[in-house]
Fold this sequence. Notes:
Fumarate Reductase Cytochrome B subunit
Amino acid sequence: xxxxxxxxxxxxxxxxxxxxxxxxxxxxxxxxxxxxxxxxxxxxxxxxxxxxxxxxxxxxxxxxxxxxxxxxxxxxxxxxxxxxxxxxxxxxxxxxxxxxxxxxxxxxxxxxxxxxxxxxxxxxxxxxxxxxxxxxxxxxxxxxxxxxxxxxxxxxxxxxxxxxxxxxxxxxxxxxxxxxxxxxxxxx
Length: 188
């Protein structure tokens, strides 16, 4: 079965993502970077310290926001498919880009879910406290060892690959594929 994201093209010019997809993309990027920082920051404080507890609460809160945004993002993507790549974007790069994005969708949903599973055993009444005194339901399943941490490092690696590919397309290839996601622009 052919993968339309690999096989279809927009011709010589790029078609840009819609405004909603662009906003969700950059908001997700900011939240994921914040989450990475929070994850490393809270773990640097001693267990039981007030600073660690406060940062951990924020880590859970941002994780829930990422989960809700990821589900919204997935719905938007299913309703409004992403634009195909320009014709001059090699098929092997299209394939890597498509599967990188699919892995991101998996990770931005699986990470918050494994996080909720990890905090479920200490949750009161099936809920965990978030910032601002709000509560969110946990998953009543056992945490799967260090899955959350492994997925976090996979996300960091994938994020680095994604950023490097975007910079390559913007500054080295200078082709129309850079036009797909604002603020990038083709320099050809």
